[in-house]
Design brief:
Layout lengths: L14 H18 L3 E2 L5 E3 H7 L5 H5 L2 E4 L5 E4 L4 H10 L9 E10 L11 E10 L4 H17 L5 E6 L6 H13 L6 H9 L10 H7 L11 H16 L5 E2 L11 E8 L8 E7 L3 H4 L7 E7 H7 L9 E5 L2 H14 L5 E3 L6 H10 L4 E5 L1 H6 L1 E6 L5 E5 H6 L2
Helix pairs in contact: 1-5, 5-9
This protein binds histidyl-adenosine monophosphate (HAM).
Histidyl-adenosine monophosphate (HAM) binds next to strand 6, strand 10, strand 11 and helix 11.
Length: 405
């Protein structure tokens, strides 16, 4: 038997219904915040991710689904959404318009990680990316959008916040950190690699031994330039004013190399080891790094697979069930269903059955209204109707049935 690949899964009803319910709600809220839908390809040139997500990241270092296509191109199944959106933003010359652009997207991402609860090799993200807005109000707005999506589904969370500095203050800090690291004995192999490629990534190493060592490391917050400091404290003031609770996590450096200034994560206590629900932050240098005009930007992505675990979704009664007591009646309900389906959800039973059997099926299907055509109704162009919520029963003309809400 052929099965889905390890770390990849089918999303069937009822989970698929929850998926759509989440997408519809999240996209409505993103639209309320001024974001518009963007769709970019699943396959991109490998160099796009090397230059954006960064060679020091686990994603580029170990986890990419990378291959040479039939045309000899070095390509990757996208491990995340930001890089592709930035590529598109530059390719379509939106960086030259001097305007603010806000996009949202959702879809599959691919990372060759070790599968476990909440971690898949094909997983789904809902992301937003905002371009051209330098103001820290935008960072705050995005965090509020993230919060409002989680609140909408009654999902408890902890919000972690950090500032990763800018090209003025980060390099001197990195220098100090490298100096510190070169005096450290016993850091893990991953950290040795990170030390060379992007030293601040050592700070979120999960190895307890490394964490112990880094307790005495120089702190980035002591190196932030006045602008970064001011923005970070303004962000905190804005969030406090809006009643958003957060904690500062100095080790929150994010697993992707493109971040500057604000970095944040919403985590859940109910998810086990893979507890990050939303990750995001500012990436003011990325557009320029990928060849565009310097453009400030900020975004986040929600892990849909993880959020679905926490959403409670009970489907209410909806729509119609049409059945007949004999073969002739089936002809009638078949036509009736075609018309009714122009505006309503209709379950159509092709097999003639007893009234009792129809009512049992209709109840299981969670419809609101049952319509049955029997011998009497056939003669008079009518239909027997029962509302399963109000329990009201009546016989009405077929045309009247089409008007039922
Ligand atoms: P990220 O932190 O790598 O950020 O991923 C965002 C979210 O995707 C995570 O918090 C998690 O919920 C989910 N996720 C990541 N990997 C997996 C996996 N293997 N299985 C299931 N869920 C997963 C980014 O991807 C950035 N592009 C976010 C961003 C947008 N930053 C700025 N704009």
């Amino acid at each position: 038997m052929i099965k889905a690949l390890r770390g990849m899964r089918d999303i069937l009803p009822p989970l698929s219904k929850k998926y759509l319910y989440f997408i519809n709600t999240a996209q409505k809220l993103a639209q309320n915040y001024g974001f518009e839908y963007i769709q970019t390809p699943l396959l991109e040139e490998t160099s796009l991710f090397k230059r954006s997500v960064g060679e020091s990241s686990d994603i580029v270092g170990k986890e990419m689904y990378q291959f040479i296509d039939k045309g000899g191109n070095d390509v990757v199944l996208r491990p995340e959404g930001t890089a592709g959106v930035v590529r598109s933003f530059i390719e379509h010359k939106l960086d030259r318009q001097g305007k603010v652009f806000r996009f949202y997207y959702f879809g599959a991402m691919f990372r060759y990680e070790r599968p476990q609860r909440g971690r898949f090799r094909q997983f789904y993200q809902f992301g937003v990316e905002s371009f051209g807005e330098k103001s820290v109000y935008e960072d705050a707005s995005l965090i509020l959008l993230g919060k409002s999506i989680l609140d909408r589904f009654h999902i408890p969370y902890r919000l972690k916040l950090n500032s990763l500095g800018c090209p003025n203050c980060l390099p001197p800090y990195k220098k100090e950190l490298v100096k510190f690291l070169s005096s450290c004995e016993g850091i893990c192999e991953d950290c040795k690699r990170r030390r060379e490629l992007n030293p601040i990534r050592v700070l979120d190493c999960k190895n307890p031994n490394c964490q112990e060592i880094y307790k005495t490391a120089p702190k980035l917050k002591d190196f932030l330039c006045p602008e970064c400091q001011e923005d970070f404290s303004k962000l905190q003031t804005l969030l406090k004013k809006e009643g958003v609770e957060f904690e500062i996590d100095e080790n929150l450096v994010r697993g992707l190399d493109y971040y500057t200034k604000t970095a944040f994560e919403f985590v859940s206590e109910q998810l086990g080891a893979q507890n990050a629900l939303i990750g995001g932050g500012r990436y003011d240098n990325l557009v320029e790094m990928l060849g565009g005009k310097p453009t400030p930007a900020v975004g986040f992505a929600i892990g849909i697979d993880r959020i679905l675990e926490l959403i409670e979704y009970e489907e209410g009664r909806e729509g119609f069930y049409l059945g007949a007591l004999d073969k002739e009646g089936v002809e009638v309900i078949f036509s009736l269903a075609r018309k009714k389906r122009e505006d309503s959800k209709v379950f159509l039973e092709y097999k003639p059955k007893s009234l009792k059997a129809h009512l049992k099926s209709a109840d299981k299907l969670k419809v609101t209204t049952v319509g049955i055509v029997g011998e009497e109704e056939l003669k008079s162009d009518t239909i027997w109707v029962k509302n399963l919520v109000t329990k009201k029963e009546e016989v009405i003309p077929l045309e009247k049935f089409l008007e039922l809400g």
